[in-house]
Design goal:
- The complex is a heterodimer of chains A (660) and B (287).
- Chain A is globular and about 90 Å long.
- In chain A, helix 12 (356-363) packs parallel to helix 13.
- Chain A is built from 19 helices and 36 strands.
- Chain A has a five-stranded parallel sheet.
- Chain A is 28% helix and 27% strand.
- Chain A folds into five domains: 4-127, Rossmann fold, CATH 3.40.50; 143-235 and 317-332 and 499-566, FAD/NAD(P)-binding domain (3-Layer(bba) Sandwich), CATH 3.50.50; 249-305, no CATH class; 334-497, FAD/NAD(P)-binding domain, CATH 3.50.50; 578-643, Alpha-Beta Plaits (2-Layer Sandwich), CATH 3.30.70.3270.
- Chain B is of the alpha/beta class.
- Chain B has two domains: 2-119, Up-down Bundle (Glutathione S-transferase Yfyf (Class Pi), Chain A, domain 2); 134-286, Rossmann fold (3-Layer(aba) Sandwich), CATH 3.40.50.
- In chain B, the strands form two sheets. Chain B has a four-stranded parallel sheet with strand order 2-1-3-4. Chain B has a four-stranded parallel sheet with strand order 6-5-7-8, with helices on both faces.
- In chain B, strand 1, helix 1 (17-30) and strand 2 (32-36) form a beta-alpha-beta unit.
- In chain B, helix 1 packs across helix 12, helix 2 crosses helix 3 (53-70) and helix 9 packs across helix 11 (237-244).
- The longest helix of chain B is centred in the N-terminal third of the chain and has 18 residues, at 53-70.
- Chain B is globular and about 55 Å long.
- The chains are: A alpha/beta (660), B alpha/beta (287).
- Chains A and B meet through strand 24 of A and loops of B.
Chain lengths: 660, 287
């Protein structure tokens, strides 16, 4: 006969303010198998937990029901309490009488009480059928994969490698550095962006424990926490980086001209190219989509002029299969494609309407104009520059409601740069709010205002050409009047969106995306650098718009989580997993078909078949991957899979207690 | 012969007379039978919805109910009438309680189950091939600035057709009969609409900009599909010139007048003699 203890929590007034908790505890005593019950104001507090520990000892309890909040809040807490009391932690059942009861029915205390009692009845019935479960352990591959070589990935890779573990860093572009290395100066310090990021890029390239794969992507991931198998595909660079000296003869002679994505289309590059002077690795690749040797079958100039014979048109893509224990996703962001959405700003047809990142490239000495801020249309120096905030952010009509977090700051920076570099310039910034939430950010913005930037609170309704200038039609909502500015250059602060290919990568990794397509964190406040899938971590703007300080912080945070994982040789897994009775399994595979976590395989095993032992194909659950969802237990036509911690018997007993 | 219910609107026999003439003439050529709704009432336009939300819906709703009775889709050539009919239809369709209320207010059962088309939509439905086949005098050498105004394309959630920032329907129709259309930024800039009476200055300023933009884009004329836009751009052009000391002489034609000319109809039957800004020179250029 089981001896279940029922512990009813008031949760302050959350539960106690709606139902009579002492009465709940009293009625619980009448339930079958319940040997003890009590109530307390805050069961999760130290005295509350002590109550449980003492009661287990005094009343020889062998199972515990806690009627309180959602198990998502305190299941882990009370499992530990049971352990301290000397009980197996899986002899706990929680009855959620808060989120599922008093918080939903605050105006109907009588029926809320009846419901709470019913929930406790069900929980007690289940508790009476719990059995001790033992967490198992799995070995850990002590190597990490970092996907994305921007500043988030770079920081994470360096931290993990410095802690003593090998890191595979996979970057899609021919160079690492991400968006940060394209910037000119960074707020609020106006540090030169490349000056602070390139040392880290070089550190990555030279680190003995970091293997860098550039021009490469992750195309497959199998396995589970501590035991992943990743497939990396590296595009053929067509240049042997071992022989290449980076002399530049090849790109000097290349006849092809391609819009340069590193200057956001403001100029052209060659088909064989190094993205920018500070690239790591600083060796060229051939963009085969635009190289005449590949598109027309005729050219070969680079091969002819290469002094060391490094060009290899026959090179093929390469694949690696590697084992890792943890994955950090640091794939960064792209900018909102404003030209497709904003007809009111010309659909991208006016060359002097540019994005903030294009402005960065103009201001950058390594950019297409050698650092001179000039109009793309005619190369003239603009005297009146208008900045428009929130283009593709905070805009429900364009499908992006969130704030992109960095644009107020970088626009203030750009405003300052115009006023500093162009004498007699006039700067107008159309804004909705100005958000300056970091250290020294407000002071930075005020400095831009004091330098002369005119901030106008209102959105821009239209931009259209007038002569060779642009008429910007907006509103000053503080004055309550329409405002029009004739501008020479208009800079749109376009919103951050998840990097192209995020959807496909999420699918490969088995990660979720949030409503805006950013990688979904496990908990928005308490677990910001963990993905929903165990062993996969997130860092940087792939998880949501943020600035460089927060990106670097997340890079290190993800690294800390990874190191915490890799430092162990084994990890425990939750024992609430599905289990197959292989002696009765027919090997039909229906369970495997419905498992969302790919945790079930069909294997050949020696199983007992009656009095003999035979070799049969049966289903087997990988406890490391199994998330305990229970799909398989429903799908199995023979009923031979059961879910530990939620067995058929336990659940049926719970239902009976509720309904009969 | 494609049959449509026809909702002429108040201006059809008044200030929009030439639009009505051109529509009828072109419809006949295109094989569109326009059956005027018996006992139609004013759609309410601006005064309707400004006076009361329910009134603004009930007035068009009655016409929609009549159209339902006819079992035909309805063409509303005036952009405001079109906008009100579609708005009322959508709003009532989304609210079952409103539907019941409409029934009570109208004293009859309301079903908004027929499609509402603007005049450009109805013409476009005929198909580019047929239009080409009917073109006997292609408008080659004619440069047109297509002016849509606001009600044909906004609000985008209600009028789900053309791109509200850069609509193409009129441009496509006129290019289909050989004209060149300009890419200009004032396609949908408001002309000032009904402010012509209480705040004429607003209209004059806005009309001036539109005319200036049309001139800058080297258009020979402006094409429109809304009688109020037409009134502001055509009738008030002289006032604009007097007010600002400008010398605009930009003919403003209804798009069906231009189509009619391309189809070989004679200017008289298209109402081209009724404009304030003379059209004779333009017509001669085409002929």
């Amino acid at each position: 006969m089981r001896r279940i203890g029922v512990f009813c929590c008031w949760c302050g007034s959350n539960i106690g303010g709606v139902i009579d908790v002492p009465r709940l505890a009293m009625e619980a005593l009448n339930l079958p198998a319940v040997a003890f019950s009590t109530d307390y104001k805050y069961m999760c507090s130290e005295p509350g937990q002590e109550l449980i520990v003492r009661a287990v000892a005094e009343h020889r309890l062998d199972g515990v029901v806690v009627a309180a909040c959602s198990p998502r809040i305190h299941e882990a807490t009370f499992r530990q309490t049971l352990e301290r009391a000397g009980l197996n932690p899986y002899l706990l059942v929680m009855a959620n009488v808060r989120e599922h009861c008093t918080w939903v029915h605050p105006d109907d205390p009588e029926r809320a009480f009846a419901k709470a009692l019913a929930l406790v009845r069900g929980a007690a019935a289940k508790a009476a059928r719990t059995e001790p479960l033992a967490a198992g352990t799995l070995p850990v591959t002590r190597r990490a994969l970092v996907i994305g070589g921007g500043i988030a990935g770079i920081q994470a890779a360096l931290d993990i490698a410095d802690a003593g573990f090998e890191v595979l860093l996979v970057e899609r572009e021919p160079t690492i550095g991400g968006k940060m290395v394209l910037l000119d100066k960074t707020f609020p310090t106006l540090d030169c962006s490349a000056c602070i990021s390139t040392p880290k890029m070089v550190a990555v390239a030279q680190h003995p424990r970091i293997r860098l794969f550039t021009y490469a992507e992750v195309v497959g991931l199998k396995g589970f926490l501590g035991n992943f198998e990743v497939t990396i595909r590296q595009k053929a660079r067509s240049v042997d980086h071992g022989k290449c000296t980076g002399c530049g003869a090849c790109w000097a002679k290349c006849p092809a001209r391609v819009p340069n994505e590193y200057n956001l289309g403001l100029d052209r590059r060659k088909a064989i190219y190094v993205p920018f002077p500070q690239a790591v690795p600083n060796k060229p690749v051939i963009d085969r989509r635009h190289c005449r040797q590949f598109t027309r079958g005729r050219c070969g100039v680079c091969q002819k002029v290469c002094p060391v014979g490094a060009i290899d048109y026959a090179e093929e893509d390469r694949e690696w299969q590697e084992r890792v224990g943890a994955v950090v996703v640091a794939t960064g962001f792209d900018l909102f494609e404003w030209a497709e959405a904003y007809g009111e700003y010309g659909y991208g047809r006016y060359p002097d309407v540019i994005t903030g990142l294009q402005f960065e490239r103009l201001a950058n000495a390594a950019g297409p104009t050698g650092g001179k801020i000039v109009r793309p249309s005619d190369g003239a120096v603009p005297r009146t520059v208008v900045f428009v905030q929130c283009v593709g952010s905070r805009d429900e009509a364009k499908g992006r409601e969130y704030c992109s977090r960095v644009c107020c700051m970088y626009t203030a920076k750009h405003a300052w740069q115009v006023l500093e570099k162009i004498p007699e310039a006039e700067v107008f910034v159309f804004y909705i709010d100005v958000r300056t939430a970091g250290k020294a950010y407000e002071e930075f913005y005020v400095r831009a205002r004091r330098a002369g930037a005119h901030y106008i609170r209102g959105r821009v309704a239209r931009i259209y050409p007038e002569g060779n200038r642009l008429r910007v039609v907006g509103t000053d909502t503080l004055l309550g009047r329409p405002v029009e500015v004739l501008a020479d250059l208009v800079v749109l602060a376009t919103g951050m969106v998840p990097a192209a290919g995020s959807g496909e990568l999420a699918r490969i990794l088995g990660c979720g995306l949030d409503k805006d397509g950013f990688f979904q964190e496990a908990h928005p406040k308490l677990r910001p650098v963990e993905a929903g899938t165990a062993g996969i971590f997130l860092a940087g703007t792939c998880q949501g718009p943020k600035d460089i300080p927060d990106t670097v912080a997340q890079g290190s945070a993800a690294a800390a989580k990874v190191v915490g994982l890799l430092v162990r040789e084994e990890i425990a897994y939750e024992p609430t997993v599905a289990m197959v009775d292989q002696t009765r399994c027919t090997g039909c595979g229906k369970c495997r078909a419905v498992c969302p976590f790919k945790a079930i395989e069909l294997v050949t095993r020696q199983v007992r078949a009656g009095t003999a032992v035979a070799e049969r194909v049966v289903a087997e659950v990988n406890p490391g991957l199994c998330a305990g969802c229970g799909n398989c237990t429903v799908a199995c036509p023979s009923g031979v899979i059961d879910l530990k911690g939620f067995t058929n018997e336990q659940l049926l007993a719970e239902v009976d207690a509720l309904c009969l | 012969m494609v049959r449509y219910a026809y909702y002429p609107g108040c201006v059809a026999e008044g200030s929009g007379r030439e639009y009505e003439m051109a529509n009828r003439a072109v419809a006949a050529r295109l094989g569109l039978e326009l059956v005027e709704i018996e006992d139609w009432n004013c759609c309410g336009a601006t005064p309707g919805h400004n006076t009361g939300h329910l009134l603004g819906l009930a007035l068009p709703a009655r016409n929609l109910a009549l159209t339902s009775d006819m079992g035909l889709d309805v063409v509303a050539p005036c952009a405001a009438c079109y906008n009100r009919l579609v708005t009322a239809q959508r709003e009532i369709a989304c609210d079952p309680e409103l539907q019941v209320l409409m029934g009570r207010l109208l004293g009859r059962d309301y079903r908004g189950d027929r499609r509402v088309l603007s005049m450009p939509e109805a013409v476009a439905a005929v198909g580019a091939e047929r239009m080409k086949a009917l073109t006997v005098r292609p408008l080659e050498g004619l440069t047109v600035a297509c002016y849509y105004g606001c009600l044909l394309v906004r609000p985008p959630a209600v009028i789900r057709g053309d791109d509200p920032e850069d609509p193409r329907l009129l441009d496509d129709l006129l290019r289909g009969v050989g004209a060149t259309t300009v890419d200009w930024a004032h396609k949908t800039e408001c002309c000032g609409a009904a402010q012509a009476l209480p705040h004429e200055e607003v209209v004059l300023c806005r009309v001036r900009r539109i005319l200036e933009a049309a001139v800058t884009s080297r258009a020979d004329c402006i094409a429109t599909a809304c009688p109020l836009c037409h009134a502001n751009l055509d009738q008030r052009q002289a006032r604009v010139n007097r007010r600002f000391g400008t010398d605009y002489r930009m003919p403003v034609l209804y798009f069906t007048q231009l189509l009619g000319l391309a189809f070989g109809l004679n200017p008289g039957e298209l109402g081209l003699g009724l404009h304030f800004v003379p059209t004779a020179e333009l017509v001669r250029k085409i002929a």
